[in-house]
TrEMBL record:
SUPFAM superfamilies linked: P-loop containing nucleoside triphosphate hydrolases (SSF52540)
Alphabetical list of PANTHER family matching this protein: GUANYLATE CYCLASE DOMAIN-CONTAINING PROTEIN, TESTICULAR SOLUBLE ADENYLYL CYCLASE
Protein's UniProt name: Orc1-like AAA ATPase domain-containing protein
Keywords, in A-Z order: ATP-binding, Nucleotide-binding
Classification lineage: Bacteria, Bacillati, Vulcanimicrobiota, Vulcanimicrobiia, Vulcanimicrobiales
Segments of this protein annotated with the region Disordered: 510-558
Domain Orc1-like AAA ATPase: 5-146
Compositional bias per record (Basic and acidic residues), positions renumbered to this chain: 527-543
Pfam families listed in its UniProt record: AAA_16
Length: 558
């Protein structure tokens, strides 16, 4: 049996979840092992939904967990059952991808697997990256993955990822479109048999629902109570909230801040209400069709219901509830990314910043560089200058890890400027900024920045690093004489030497070996075209003047 990746797209409430649930029911009846997870707007942890899938399999299919000690350690560290902090062995995202794929395949070898991932528009970038890695293996594995996402999600990066997934041979993409009036009325008849609509109200309901079954059902439920047909979905939810008791309305508004799913203890921590009052409040919200009881707590019947409840509150009410939620999570030692989100929603960016930074550090430790960069940006927005000194280099390193050399150069340069303003500039960030500029294709600017730094610094280790870089840059350009010159310059400096720069110097030496010089010299003119602009141009055309600035002639350099 071959597998498939099924991507269901459509507007909120159009029926994607209903289709996924029907697939789950049918799959279970056909002998599939069904796993269902969801993404939430309030929490975008690295690999979030797939870590949840891995944890489920570890509990339900322990035989699928790797037996080899090394792979088992990778698996347990990523899913959080083994410690990460303080370990000498860093986490390796690529290796985890391989291990996780093998866990899924071993499980599917026993029983075909159906994994449902809802609301992928709120997924973290690393989860989509894993899906792109794993999807080609579905061609030979009895695994079906169903992904749902909104088409109205305004996220260009997500659109790129989904388009890439959609082009894979194993992918089937289906857009769930609005229903016609007849289909809407059929759904109402099946789901709400106590609703009786005359022709006029039926036509009005279909017109206001615009083909969206969730909206149609919510409007029909209000009509069933004998109230006039609401003019819109938001009006329907607002009227339903007004019919609740004050304590019931307070509880449901607090729940909307917690998220799509919530526990009784979450509301206890937020609200100063007696237990019996809180139970009665949740019952009232359930009877009003806003929330439902689940195996592990409670949940809004649909994300649009939660959104409608939250948006009806005053901004000051929302921020106050987010503040109380953040304080409650802090007392429990809650998730850093979640704490950052709640403090930011409480309009307290300074309190959100350290948690966002911690979430970024945790993401970097898992090779989740895109998530780390997003968290560091959030932290920087609420930080003072002292914290920015730490955050800008972290942003640069995250950008480097993503292959964004231009972004890394900008952040290293920002760190260098901040250090100069504070009188603490030791040249390290300037050198890293120049190196990133070079890798971004700006050779002339990078080499000029390194030469300027060599002229200004008295730090021997920094001089060695700079000279080693210049040697390597000239070697890459096929300029053997100049590479040899800067190798000699580097060797003339005493003091600590960065091993990476020492390797660069060694690499430049190999590029400049006499047996290869003629071939390299012949390739100089081609280098600018073949290497994306890393060749002779701009101020580096006059090579003699470059070496003369360092007190050496080209002949002497060779």
């Amino acid at each position: 049996m071959d597998g498939a990746l099924i991507v269901l797209t459509g507007e909120a409430g159009v029926g994607k979840t209903s289709i996924a649930e029907a697939c789950a029911t049918d799959g279970a009846a056909r002998g599939f092992h069904v796993l269902s997870v969801a993404n939430y707007h309030s929490a975008r942890a690295p690999f979030g939904p797939f870590l949840e899938v891995m944890r489920m399999l570890a509990r339900e299919r322990p035989e699928a967990v790797p037996a080899a000690a090394g792979d088992r350690l990778v698996f347990e560290r990523f899913i959080g059952t083994a410690p990460v902090a303080g370990s000498e062995q860093p986490l390796d995202k690529r290796r985890f991808f391989v291990v996780a794929a093998e866990v899924l395949e071993r499980s599917a070898a026993v029983t075909p697997l159906l994994a449902i991932v809802e609301d992928a528009h709120w997924s973290d970038p690393e989860s989509l990256e894993f899906l792109r890695f794993f999807a080609p293996r579905l061609a030979t594995a009895p695994i079906v993955v169903i992904v749902t996402l909104r088409t109205d999600a305004d996220d260009d990066a997500l659109a790129v990822q989904i388009d890439a997934l959609s082009r894979l041979p194993v992918t089937q993409r289906h857009t769930v479109t609005p229903l016609d009036d007849r289909s809407l009325l059929t759904i109402i008849t099946l789901s709400a048999p106590n609703v009786s609509l005359d022709a006029e109200n039926a036509a009005a309901l279909c017109r206001r629902a615009e083909g969206n079954p969730l909206i149609a059902l919510e409007l029909a439920r209000d009509a069933a109570s004998g109230a006039p047909l609401p003019s819109s979905f938001v009006t329907a939810i607002g009227a339903r909230l007004r019919n609740l008791q004050p304590s019931e309305r307070t509880a449901i508004e607090a729940a909307s801040v917690v998220g799509r799913t919530f526990a009784f203890s979450d509301l206890q921590a937020l609200l100063n209400l007696p237990r019996t009052t809180l139970i009665s409040a949740i019952r009232g919200a359930r009877d009003a069709g806003i929330v439902e009881e689940t195996a592990i707590g409670f949940a809004f019947r649909h994300e649009r219901l939660r959104e409608a409840v939250e948006t009806r509150m005053l901004a000051v009410e929302r921020s106050d509830l987010h503040r109380r939620r953040a304080l409650a999570l802090e007392a429990l030692g809650g998730d850093a990314a979640l704490l950052a989100m709640h403090w930011a929603a409480a309009n307290e960016p300074a309190r959100a910043a350290p948690f966002a930074e911690r979430a970024g550090d945790e993401a970097m430790a898992r090779d989740a560089f895109a998530t780390a960069r997003a968290r560091y940006r959030e932290a920087l927005a609420g930080s003072d200058d002292d914290a920015a000194v730490r955050l800008e280099p972290k942003l640069a390193r995250a950008s480097e890890s993503l292959g964004d050399a231009a972004g890394a150069a900008r952040w290293y340069d920002a760190a260098a400027q901040r250090a100069r303003a504070a009188g603490t500039d030791d040249g390290r960030w300037r050198l890293r900024a120049a190196d990133s500029q070079y890798r971004a294709g700006h050779r002339d600017e990078a080499m000029a920045a390194v030469r300027l730094l060599l002229a200004e610094t008295a730090d021997a280790s920094l001089q060695f690093d700079g000279a080693a870089l210049l040697a390597m840059y000239h070697a890459y350009a096929g300029e053997a004489e100049f590479a040899e010159h800067f190798i000699g310059v580097a060797r003339g400096y005493d003091g600590p030497r960065d091993p990476i720069r020492a390797l660069a110097c060694l690499g430049a030496r190999r590029h400049g070996d006499p047996p290869r010089r003629r071939r390299m010299a012949g390739g100089r003119q081609r280098c600018g075209r073949d290497r994306g602009g890393i060749g002779r141009r701009g101020p580096d055309r006059d090579q003699s003047s470059q070496l003369q600035r360092h007190g050496t002639s080209p002949r002497q350099a060779s």
